[in-house]
Specification:
The chain is mainly α. The protein is 62% helix and 5% strand.
Length: 923
C-alpha cells in the first residue's frame, strides 16, 4: 500500500468536459465565465488542476490564482497571483509600494483596477487565455469588484474566466459578483460527493488494491468527499486496520467499530508518524498562515534554518504540505486549521505576537507583520509601536481595513505619552478617511480637538466635511479658522483655497472669487501648488459659469502644470475646467486633446474623475455632431465606477440622442431623476431637457415649453448657467410654435446677454436663432446657421435651417423654404436625427412644402457602411490584433471607450467576437 496519501483526482469527467468545451469556445473568441461551487474538500482545486492540460491543449494560456483567508483586508490580493509572474507586476506596483494616489482608497483603487484590466486586455490580445481564481470566497473586496467588472467584458474576448468558491454566506461584494453571474446566466458546476464507483476508484488508488465491501461501507460515511475519504483511509492504514487478502482490501476485525472520530482527528493523527521536532513545528507554522516561508519560520521560532527545512521536507513527504509554483502551502485549509487548533489560545496569541515582533526587521510584507500584531490582541511593545508609526502611511494604502483596526486599538492604549498618542490619533484619522469612513473620522477628530485644538486637526475636519459633501460646514469651518487662529501664509492659503472652491459649488460666486484670488496669491508666494490649484479653479470656474470664457481659459490653463507629477487632491481635476472652456470657445479639437490627456492621467494616477472626463467628451461630441462617439463615451462612463454622479448624466445624454433619433421615447414621468451629487448640479438642465422633448414627442409642446422655461429661469444664475444655452434653441422654437411671445423675447434676451460677455461663433448662432424666431426674421436665422456651421455644431445649424424653412414658408417664399428644409433634413440625416427631421417636415407641411423626391439618405443600420469613421479606425486595428489598451493609446481614447466601439462594431457587423473582425478587403 502507498505511504503517501496526497490527493488523487478521480471522476469529475462531465465537469472536466464542460470546462474543456468552454475553453474551446474562448479560443474561438466567444469568452465566458463559469463558476465552480462545492463544500470544503469536495475537489474544486483538484478539478482546476486537472483542467490545466486539456485547456492548454485547446490553445489557452493559463493563469491560476487563489484568494487567501489571511489577506482579505489587502486590496487586490486575490488577483495578485495572476500578476506575480516575471514582467507582469506593473499593474499593482503602485499599490504594493504603498504610495498614495488621491485622497481616498476609492480613487487609488480605481486607478489600480484600470491598470489590471489593461494588463488582462493585453494578455487577451496576445492569445486566448484562461484566468482561474480558486477560493473566491476568501477574496478581498477590491478583487471581487474587479472580477465583477471582468465578467462584463468576457463575451467579446478570447477569455475563459473560472471562479471556484465554497457556498458560504455572502458579503455585499460577493453578493454583487454572484448577482452578476446570475444575470449573465453563467454556467455553474456544483460539485457533490463522488459517486460510489468513483469513490471506490479513489480508495483503490490509495490502498493499491481492490476495496472490499466492508471498506467501501466504511468509506461511504465520508459522503463521497474526496478529502474526507483520503484522510479516513489514511487513518485506517496508519492504524494497521486494513488487510489485503487475495488483492482485496478490507478492515480487519473489530477495528471497524472504533474508527477515527472526526476528520480533524484523522488529519492530526498524521503527526504521530512524524519526528518530534516536525510535530512541534507544524502546528505553529499552521497558525502563522497557509503559506510557509522557511526563512521567516526559522526567525519566528528561533530555530536554525536547516531545522526548519527538515520539518518542512518531512511534512511534504507526509502529504501535509504541497508545492504550488514556487510556494509551500498546506494541502488544504481544513488540514491547516486542524493543525493550528492544536495550539492553546494563549500560546497561539504569544506566537502571533512574537511573529509580529520578529519579522519587523525582515523583508516580510508590512501587512503580514501588522496582521500578526493585530490578531495577537496584545499591547504593543515600544519597538513595535515605533515600527507601526514608521510604516503607517504605507500600511493605510496597502491594507486599509487592517491599518484602521490596528491603529484604532493602539491609539486607545493607556499610559501612552502625549506626543505618541497625538501621532497615532492623526494616523487613525487618515486611515478612516482613506477607507471612506468619514463619520467615524469626524467623531475621532472632534474628540481630539477637545485636548489638541491644532490647525492640522481643523484641516482634517474640513476635509471630512468635504468627503461627506457638507460644503457649507467645510466653508464655515475654514472661515472660522481664518478669522480666529494664528496661521502662517501656507496654512492661510490652504484654507482660503478650500473657501474658494467650496463657495463656488455653493453658488456664492463673489465670495468664491475673493477667497480664490487670495489663495492664488498666497499659494504662489509660498510655493504651495495645492492652494494655488484650489484658487485658480475657484476663480476660473466663477468666470466660466458667468460666461467670461477668455478669463476662465487663461486661469485654467495654469492649473495642469501644478500637478504634472500626478499629485493633487480629489476635490478637483486639473484639466477639467480647461477642457470645458475650450469646448465653449468652439475649440473642439483642442478640447478633445486636453480631455484625452485628462483621461490618461486619471487612469494612471487616480480614477475619481475618469467618468467626468468621459462625460465631458460625450457632451463635446453631442454638440459637435459625433453622436455615435458620444454614445460610446456614455457607455464607457456608465461602466466606470461612479463617485460623483456622472453615470446618471451619461444616461441622460444617451437618452437625449435616442429621443432625437426616434429610438427612445420614454414616459416623461419615468425618466430617471438625478441626485444631488456634483455632476447633476452642474448639468441640472439636461434631465428636464430630456423630459421636455419626451413631452413634445407625445404631442404636448405646451408642457415641453413650460418645463424648459422654468428650467431656464431656475438655473440662469447658478452652476448650470455655463451650458444652459444648449436648451435655448428648443425654447425659442417651442415658443414660436405655441405662440408664447414673452418666452421667445426672454430667451432671446438671455442669449444676447451671454453673447456680450463672450462672443463666440456658437453663442452668436444661438443669439441670432433666438432673435430670428422672436422677430420672425428668416434671414437672421440663415445667418445663425452660418455661425453654427463655423462653430462646428450641426444640430443647432440644422435647427436654424428648419426654423428658417418654417418662416420662409409662412412668408410665401416656397423655393427658399424648400431649400432650407432640404439643408436641415440633410444635416439631421447625417446625425441620424430622424425625429428632428420628421418634425421639420411636419412643421412646413401646412404651407404646402414637401421634401424633394430623392431626399437625404440615412446611414445604413448594418454592415461596414454603417460604421462611423472612429469605428472604422478601431476595426482596422482590432483586425491587426491590437488590444483595446493598445488601440486606446494610439487613438488617445480610454480603454472603455474602445470597448464600447468594439461592441458597436460587432452589433453592426452581426458578429459575436472581436476575433471575427476583419477588414472589408479581407471579405
Amino acid at each position: 500500500m502507498q505511504d503517501c496519501f496526497a490527493a488523487a483526482f478521480v471522476g469529475r469527467d462531465a465537469e472536466l468536459a464542460t470546462l474543456t468545451a468552454l475553453g474551446r469556445r474562448a479560443v474561438a473568441g466567444h469568452g465566458c465565465v463559469v463558476s465552480i461551487e462545492g463544500a470544503p474538500g469536495i475537489g474544486k482545486s483538484a478539478l482546476l488542476e486537472a483542467a490545466r492540460n486539456p485547456l492548454a491543449a485547446a490553445g489557452l494560456h493559463i493563469r491560476i490564482g487563489a484568494a487567501d483567508e489571511l489577506r482579505q483586508g489587502v486590496p487586490f490580493a486575490g488577483v495578485c497571483s495572476w500578476l506575480d509572474d516575471a514582467g507582469t507586476t506593473s499593474p499593482i506596483e503602485a499599490l504594493r509600494s504603498g504610495d498614495r494616489v488621491g485622497d481616498v482608497a476609492a480613487s487609488h483603487e480605481l486607478a489600480i483596477a484600470e491598470a489590471i484590466l489593461d494588463q488582462i486586455d493585453t494578455w487577451c490580445a496576445a492569445g486566448p487565455i484562461a484566468l482561474v481564481m480558486d477560493d473566491v470566497h476568501w477574496a478581498d473586496r477590491s478583487s471581487l469588484t474587479l472580477l465583477r467588472r471582468l465578467c462584463t467584458l468576457v463575451d467579446e474576448l478570447p477569455l475563459l474566466l473560472v471562479l471556484a468558491a465554497r457556498p458560504l454566506p455572502r458579503d455585499p461584494a460577493y453578493a454583487a459578483l454572484t448577482s452578476e453571474l446570475v444575470a449573465r446566466q453563467a454556467p455553474v458546476l456544483r460539485l457533490d460527493g463522488l459517486p460510489v464507483a468513483d469513490a471506490a476508484e479513489l480508495v483503490r488508488h490509495l490502498v493499491g488494491a481492490e476495496p472490499g465491501p466492508r471498506l467501501l461501507a466504511k468509506v461511504a460515511e465520508a459522503g463521497g468527499n474526496p478529502l474526507h475519504v483520503t484522510e479516513l483511509v489514511a487513518a485506517l492504514v496508519r492504524d494497521g486496520a486494513i488487510r489485503v487478502i487475495a488483492d482485496t482490501a478490507d478492515p480487519a476485525g473489530a477495528v471497524v467499530a472504533n474508527p477515527s472520530a472526526s476528520l480533524a482527528e484523522a488529519i492530526t493523527q498524521r503527526l504521530d508518524f512524524l519526528s518530534r521536532p516536525t510535530r512541534d513545528v507544524l502546528p505553529m507554522a499552521a497558525a502563522l498562515g497557509p503559506t510557509i516561508d522557511v526563512a521567516d519560520l526559522a526567525v519566528v521560532l528561533k530555530i536554525p534554518i536547516l531545522d526548519a527545512w527538515s520539518a518542512v521536507t518531512e511534512a511534504l513527504d507526509g502529504g501535509l504540505l504541497i508545492r504550488v509554483d514556487a510556494e509551500l502551502v498546506f494541502r488544504h485549509d481544513l488540514i491547516r486549521h486542524a493543525l493550528a487548533d492544536r495550539l492553546p489560545a494563549s500560546l497561539r496569541s504569544d506566537l502571533l505576537q512574537r511573529a509580529g515582533q520578529a519579522l519587523q526587521s525582515t523583508e516580510a510584507p508590512i501587512e503580514r507583520v501588522a496582521y500578526y500584531l493585530s490578531v495577537a490582541d496584545r499591547e504593543l511593545d515600544r519597538a513595535s509601536l515605533d515600527w507601526l508609526i514608521g510604516v503607517a502611511d504605507k500600511l493605510i494604502v496597502r491594507a486599509p481595513e487592517l491599518a484602521k483596526r490596528l491603529l484604532s486599538r493602539v491609539a486607545a492604549t493607556p499610559d501612552l505619552d502625549a506626543g505618541t498618542r497625538s501621532v497615532l490619533i492623526r494616523l487613525r484619522i487618515h486611515a478612516l478617511l482613506w477607507d471612506g469612513n468619514a463619520a467615524e473620522a469626524e467623531s475621532v477628530v472632534r474628540e481630539a480637538l477637545l485636548t489638541q485644538p491644532d490647525i492640522e486637526l481643523h484641516w482634517l475636519l474640513a476635509q471630512i466635511y468635504q468627503a461627506q459633501a457638507r460644503l457649507s460646514d467645510a466653508v464655515a469651518l475654514a472661515e472660522d479658522v481664518l478669522s480666529t487662529r494664528e496661521l502662517d501664509a501656507e496654512e492661510s492659503a490652504r484654507f482660503l483655497g478650500m473657501c474658494g472652491l467650496g463657495n463656488f459649488f455653493l453658488e456664492r460666486f463673489a465670495a468664491a472669487e475673493q477667497a480664490g484670488r487670495q489663495a492664488v496669491a498666497l499659494g504662489e508666494s509660498t510655493g504651495n501648488p495645492l492652494a494655488t490649484g484650489y484658487g485658480l479653479t475657484a476663480v476660473g470656474a466663477v468666470h466660466y459659469t458667468r460666461g467670461y470664457l477668455d478669463e476662465a481659459l487663461n486661469l485654467s490653463a495654469r492649473i495642469p502644470a501644478l500637478f504634472e507629477d500626478g499629485t493633487g487632491p480629489d476635490q478637483f481635476d486639473p484639466y477639467a475646467l480647461y477642457a470645458h472652456c475650450l469646448i465653449e470657445l468652439d475649440h473642439l479639437t483642442d478640447a478633445e486633446a486636453v480631455l484625452q490627456t485628462a483621461i490618461g492621467r486619471n487612469r494612471r494616477f487616480r480614477g475619481v474623475y475618469l467618468s467626468s472626463n468621459l462625460v465631458a467628451k460625450a457632451r463635446m461630441y453631442l454638440v459637435g455632431g459625433r453622436w455615435d462617439d458620444a454614445l460610446a463615451e456614455c457607455t464607457a462612463s456608465m461602466q466606470t465606477p461612479d463617485v460623483l454622479g456622472y453615470a446618471t448624466l451619461a444616461h441622460t445624454i444617451a437618452a437625449l440622442i435616442g429621443i432625437r433619433r426616434g429610438t427612445f421615447v420614454p414616459d416623461p414621468d419615468r425618466v430617471p431623476a438625478p441626485d444631488h451629487r456634483l455632476a447633476n448640479i452642474g448639468y441640472a438642465h439636461f434631465h428636464p431637457w430630456v423630459k421636455a422633448l419626451t413631452h413634445e414627442a407625445r404631442g404636448r409642446p405646451d408642457l415641453a415649453l413650460e418645463l424648459l422655461v422654468d428650467t431656464h429661469n431656475r438655473l440662469t444664475d447658478g452652476l448650470a448657467s455655463a451650458t444652459l444655452h444648449y436648451i435655448y434653441p428648443d425654447i425659442a422654437r417651442l415658443a414660436a410654435d405655441v405662440g408664447d411671445a414673452h418666452a421667445a423675447r426672454s430667451v432671446a434676451a438671455s442669449a444676447d446677454l451671454l453673447l456680450t460677455r463672450q462672443p463666440t461663433a456658437s453663442r452668436t448662432g444661438t443669439a441670432l436663432l433666438c432673435r430670428g424666431l422672436a422677430d420672425s426674421d428668416p434671414d437672421v436665422l440663415r445667418t445663425a446657421a452660418s455661425a453654427f456651421r463655423q462653430s462646428g455644431r450641426p444640430l443647432f445649424e440644422a435647427q436654424a435651417h428648419e426654423n428658417a424653412a418654417v418662416l420662409l414658408a409662412a412668408a410665401g417664399r416656397a423655393p427658399e423654404s424648400r431649400n432650407a428644409l432640404e439643408t436641415a433634413t440633410e444635416l439631421y440625416s447625417g446625425l441620424g436625427a430622424s425625429w428632428d427631421s420628421a418634425r421639420a417636415v411636419a412643421r412646413v407641411r401646412p404651407y404646402g412644402i414637401r421634401r424633394g423626391v430623392r431626399g437625404p439618405r440615412n446611414r445604413p443600420k448594418s454592415g461596414w457602411a454603417a460604421l462611423t469613421d472612429t469605428e472604422r479606425k478601431v476595426a482596422a486595428q482590432v483586425a491587426e490584433g491590437l488590444s483595446n489598451t493598445d488601440i486606446a493609446a494610439q487613438m488617445f481614447l480610454s480603454r472603455r471607450t474602445i470597448q464600447s466601439h468594439v461592441s458597436s462594431i460587432l452589433g453592426k457587423l452581426d458578429l459575436h467576437s472581436r476575433r471575427e473582425i476583419t477588414t472589408p478587403q479581407a471579405h
